[in-house]
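Explain this protein:
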Amino acid sequence: MDASPYYIPALALWAGLLAKLPDLVRTWRDPLVRSVCWVIFLGGAGFIFAAPPTVAAVNHASGIPNLAAPLDYVLVSAYSAACLVLILHWRGGSAGHVRRLARRWQIGYTVLITLLVVLFLMGDAPVERRTDLDTYYATTPWIGQMIALYLLGHMTAAVATTALCWRWALQVRGWLRAGLWLLVAAWLLNLSFSTLKLIAVAARWKGTDWDVLSTILAPGLVGLAATVATVGFIVPLLGPRAIGLWRAGVTWWRLGPLWHELSSVSPSSPLAAPIPWYSSYAVRLTQREAGIQDGLNHVRPHLDDRVRSRAEEAARAAGHGTDDASRIGLAAMIAAAVRARCNGASATVDVSDHSAGLAARATLVGVAHALRTSPIVATARAAAAVDDGIRK
């Protein structure tokens, strides 16, 4: 039998665990971080030990037919409890209240796991069943009860977790809400998994063979549920970081025209030098902004407010709004100042201090856009070159 429906979700879950390991090392005392890691680890282990090749290996190594079944039931039940505890810690609230609720669920599933082990020891399952033990032994004394108890425990966790995530999702916004709705979807899939298996088991109690529900449909659902749950847990953690990196990259790119305009006035400055390819976009953006401020410091004596005023008036006459016209005026003044600085012109007489405005990132982005696209800025740059030529 193809084991990929078991091993692929396990790998997906443990890939998520690998992404969380740095957080675990840094904040291993945080119960929330530990709970996330336990959930991902146990979820992956549940799939590994449910895979037919693993089932065969465990049974062969132990010499006990079907030992893999209670082992997997224990892992899945522990996973269910870990998910409930994680949601409780994640949602927060009074520390004492959270600890009490978490302890109750932990005690409840510890009792469940103990009963599963006891029932297996009391029963007799001599024929190895790698994929259909649930239905094959559904009517066997003690083993059938073990199977039904395991499925009911799984359904309980699915209902409780779905309800917790659903209520919480209605109270929050953003990435957390997206992650919670994914968890709702994942646990509804888990609920479908245990429901299908329980229906197949109940059919055997009635003497009917609906094994396809347990052996074919249910494994596909639980595999999808594990993948969706992993994404649901990780999205609220990594989503804001991804958006931050995206915004840093976009801002870095948008500041390019201004950075290139100013870098020519201080080619020996390390801040205005080309940024190393291996730097993150957050570092690149910081370096680029520092380079821009360094360049502005070099051209500050040449910033002519008359150039800015003329360009701003021309922009308004061309139909630009107040903010756009202001940025076009600043861009024209900077372009003219760069040309004057590069040509060795003397400092201008009418110098105004625009440090406050040019320190704002949004203003710098607007100035960079005007440098790249505005014909008014191009005209001011050309006029500065002509003026320098006349003075020389």
Observations:
- Residues 257-391 form one domain.
